[in-house]
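> call design_seq(struct)
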């Protein structure tokens, strides 16, 4: 029986979880298999991310993506007809060649990524393989694992409307015995936290941010940490659940200073992080300094990197060239993988491989503007990275990823290994 090939490629404008347009691509194969994929979008974005093409016209206040849709339907589509969907790298490389720019500004990283992910899903379906297994094969990974979920239960920064500067306060069930147990622990902590907020701050405190976490009227990191630590303790999980932070420091960096309750120099902010790490059960910190300051990252990594995971997001933007700088300077020990930061699945896999080869960990991540597409759940399992940022166990676009991982755990059965 001949291999199925791509017979049509079609894109459309859909909505992300913030009511902002994004792009979805649909691939049909010669054997009538159809696969689709949707592209997430960030609110707090690194300036070195690949370009997300927007229309910049009146409709949707400039946020429409009809130009990106047109680029798929009029440029990319005709060049992919007849291609083998199981050959991910040649397909991605062809789209990169069609674009021809360093940051994918001609066709748009969102246009290219929508097709890249849809091709991957079609390739898995054409081989009758689970998506995570197809990704594992593409990445030459033999270690399939269920990831530890990093769940953003208190939102701050640009993800919420409060005065809290730090962006994410996450519960990390890193000592659960299996993924489903980790989900239970996160959900119970979330429920306890909700009740504690209602008691202390009233109904307005349980409004949620973009990623499903609560956005209470708290001004300080200590206040948020004490709330989260107290909820973890009350739920009975102090021995199995820790805390992770995503600072998002570029968002409050101005004229050489970090503006919070007062102005902090990089050195003063570093000392503040050291104090927090001593006072609270923190096991991971992300984006502690602004997105060009490899040296301050390296200094913090030198001081606490053996005990705490130092994660680069805006600093590294899933980009091999920037990861190489980070490795050379010893700025981090973990790379956050966001597929839309770089724009193709192949480049995401290459970034993961470089990090692992360098002795670093990786963590797959959602974005604040998500869709119901659960691709990143399969990506985390297929790469075997052992960590995934999912947001809170609330809002359909977040629970879609939790639920897909629960399905995968069930499907794997005794082969399901939780990455503790």
């Amino acid at each position: 029986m001949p291999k199925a090939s791509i017979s049509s490629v079609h894109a459309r404008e859909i909505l992300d979880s913030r009511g902002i347009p994004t792009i979805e691509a649909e691939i049909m194969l010669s054997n009538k298999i159809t696969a689709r994929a949707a592209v997430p979008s960030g609110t707090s974005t690194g300036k070195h991310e690949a370009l997300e093409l927007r229309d910049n016209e009146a409709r949707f206040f400039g946020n429409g993506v009809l130009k990106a849709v047109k680029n798929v339907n009029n440029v990319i589509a005709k060049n992919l007809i007849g291609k083998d969907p199981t050959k991910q790298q040649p397909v991605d490389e062809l789209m990169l060649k069609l674009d021809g720019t360093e940051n994918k500004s001609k066709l748009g990283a969102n246009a290219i990524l929508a097709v890249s992910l849809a091709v991957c899903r079609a390739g898995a379906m054409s081989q009758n393989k689970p998506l995570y297994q197809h990704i594992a094969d593409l990445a030459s990974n033999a270690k399939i694992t269920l990831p530890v979920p990093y769940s953003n239960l208190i939102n701050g920064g640009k993800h919420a409307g409060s005065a809290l500067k730090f962006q994410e306060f996450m519960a990390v069930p890193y000592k659960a015995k299996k993924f489903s147990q980790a989900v239970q622990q996160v959900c119970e902590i979330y429920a306890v936290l909700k009740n504690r907020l209602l008691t202390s701050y009233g109904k307005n405190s349980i409004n949620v941010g973009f990623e499903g976490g609560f956005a209470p009227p708290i001004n300080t990191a200590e206040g948020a940490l004490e709330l989260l630590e107290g909820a973890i303790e009350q739920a009975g999980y102090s021995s199995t659940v820790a805390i992770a932070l995503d600072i998002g420091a570029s968002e409050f960096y101005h004229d050489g200073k970090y503006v919070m309750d007062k102005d902090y120099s990089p050195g003063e902010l570093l000392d503040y992080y050291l104090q927090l790490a001593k006072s609270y059960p923190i096991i991971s910190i992300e984006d502690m300094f602004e997105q060009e300051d490899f040296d301050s990252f390296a200094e913090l990594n030198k001081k606490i990197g053996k005990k705490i995971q130092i994660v680069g997001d805006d600093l590294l933007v899933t980009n091999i060239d920037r990861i190489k700088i980070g490795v050379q300077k010893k700025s981090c020990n973990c790379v956050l993988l966001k597929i839309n930061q770089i724009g193709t699945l192949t480049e995401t896999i290459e970034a993961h491989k470089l990090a692992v080869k360098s002795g670093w960990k990786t963590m797959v991540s959602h974005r604040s503007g998500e869709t119901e597409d659960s691709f990143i759940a399969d990506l985390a399992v297929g790469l075997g990275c052992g960590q995934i940022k999912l947001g809170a166990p609330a809002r359909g676009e977040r629970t879609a990823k939790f639920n897909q991982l629960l399905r995968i755990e069930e499907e794997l059965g005794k082969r399901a290994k939780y990455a503790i």
